Amino acid sequence: MDYQNRAGSKFGGGGVASSSATNADRRERLRKLALETIDLDKDPYFFKNHVGSFECRLCLTVHQNDGSYLAHTQGRKHQTNLMRRAAKEQREGKDKEGTQQGLLAGVQVKKNVIKIGRPGYRITKIRDPQTRQNGLLLQFQFPQITPGVVPRVRFMTAFEQKVEEPDPNFQYLIVAGEPYETVAVKLQAREVDRHEDKFFHWFDEDSKEFWVQLLFKTDRDERYSAVPGLAAGRK
Fold it and tell me: Is 140:175 a contact under the CB 8 Å cutoff?
């Protein structure tokens, strides 16, 4: 780092580096060190998601570029998790071929599925004519889905997002169906009505279409649903 041109320092004497400059220099040194020792193509925990970010499957973290991921692999968290994983595998006897065969005999091994792309989708805004609740009707096409596989759906809140600054104003609806890539629909961070006639999903085996309907709770239900002694909103 160049310290001689810092404010208040003499030429050639060097100045006091700020904490941000020190951290930036440390990350750069770690990145260069990792580039010399790590091949990302052979890293089993390296994964590039559908939005272009890089994920560490061991630590469940998200990084904006490969340099950030490489610096992460040299950090204490990643190294600690590597030691824990190695100790666990050694404790379970996976380092011995005979023991490994015995373990695999009673365990269903998850195969690496080659992703074939994202499913087609269509999103329609809807409103309940009685309760006036706003919602969405989502339609996903899985024409080449694996036989016997039914798409799955779940919600991901801001607290589950492994990013540096998650936005609490939004949540995600996650839809997965092999061999397609997992997709996410960005929604407002509003409470979803969980009643059977309000939120449901259904997979059509013939047309290979996956339907999801969700309705958000009204402002009154969101405000008073947790207050004891008050009547619930219309269902």
Answer: yes
Q: For residue 163, is it within any domain? A: yes
Per the listing, tokens 């990643």 go with: 78
In this structure, is residue 115 part of a structural domain?
no
Count: domains in the chain: 1
Strands (E), the chain: 46-48, 54-56, 61-63, 120-127, 134-141, 152-156, 170-176, 183-188, 200-204, 209-215
Note whether residue 153 is domain-resident.
yes
Residue 184, pLDDT above cutoff 50: yes
Pair of tokens at residue 35 = 């580039």
Distance between CA atoms of residues 32 and 66, nearest Å: 11
The model's confidence at residue 99, banded by pLDDT at 50, 70 and 90, is very low
pLDDT of residue 103: 43
Of 135, 138, 126, 148, nearest to 209 by C-alpha is 138
CATH number at residue 140: 2.60.40.790
Tell me how many degrees the CA angle 23-85-105 measures, rounded to the nearest 5: 155
Spatial separation of the C-alpha atoms in residues 112 and 137, rounded to whole Å? 31
Please report how the helices 76-92 and 66-73 are oriented relative to each other, as an axis angle in degrees rounded to 10. Answer: 60
